[in-house]
Design brief:
3 helices, Helix Hairpins
């Protein structure tokens, strides 16, 4: 998942994606502990996707706050 596709998502879709990926990390960790995880980079890649999602989410929060500040002035 690249940033362009994340930016096209709605706020609710981003929140859902974050939760889904957190569940995936939980499953990957369980698989790793039991020795069933084949792709060891899956945890790392999923964490990076979550970071991208949270970055876009934060950018939107800051943009909304900036718009509110501009409207008050």
């Amino acid at each position: 998942m690249d940033v362009r596709t994340i930016r096209e998502m709605t706020d609710d879709a981003i929140l859902d994606a974050i939760e889904d990926h957190k569940e995936m990390i939980y499953k990957y960790r369980f698989q790793k502990a039991s020795g069933q995880l084949e792709n060891l980079n899956a945890i790392r890649n999923t964490r990076r996707i979550i970071a991208r999602l949270k970055t876009v989410q934060r950018e939107r929060q800051l943009a909304a706050a900036q718009q509110q500040t501009a409207q008050k002035e």
